[in-house]
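Researcher: I'd like a structural prediction for the single chain below. Treat it as a standalone chain; there are no partners to consider.
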Amino acid sequence: MKRVLIFGGNRFVGKQLSEVLIDTYRVDVFNRSGTSSDDRISVIQGDRNNKQDIDKIDFDKYDYIVDMCLFFPSQLKLIMDLVKSKYIFVSSAAANDRYIEYYGDYGKDKLAVEDMLVDSNLDYVIIRPSYIIGKGDHRDRLNYYLKSIQNEIPIKIDGDGQNKINMVFSQDVVNVLHNLIKYWVRNDNRFYYICGNQSVRLVDFINHINKKYYNKNIKFNFNQKDAIFPKNDFILSNKYTCRDLDVSFTDLYKGVDDYLQVT
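Model: Treating it as a single chain, here is the predicted structure.
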């Protein structure tokens, strides 16, 4: 049975991925909390910024590594010479050249890690998710809008709300990662966008949800810099991801329907 190491693996997408993989693979997780969601998952407790903790990992025994929580080039440097397996880096669509300036150091650091991988000898694939939403989201992105609508709390919007954003459900990210491990498909650029089928105007999205489920008197507070989404457009395509990895993506509004039934 092949073995997978997940950096992270104790919340949201990493947790869901480990629970999907455990029926087919031996799964280990490396995280600071030392926890997993299933007794069949082996846990290595450690801080990836600490070389002594990294030394706890026997990299030779893994067939695949999924790195869910790599944010800085310094973190990749600690493991680059140790990785012998196929390696998946969960980057971000914030590293896209068109949008990177809106995301500050976060997007720039992700891109710097990508550039290091391109220059390395690792057998890697990069995925660039858009805004991930769904059950277990510790950032509470979708819930913020749902709860604000339900309780008629003014909704913070950066800009005028006419920018288009892209959201992808966690189960679709898990499906992509699962198929990457299963088939190990790579295009020439070695990266894939993991994003919803449509980018929508934020105000239109909120109004649609309100009309369908709540019919409340909602109010927008525009030009709020601390809003969840920045005011830039975020228009992406999953065309090549669907083609190469044999996946489909959940329709945004159908996904919200399912989410509300679950929660």
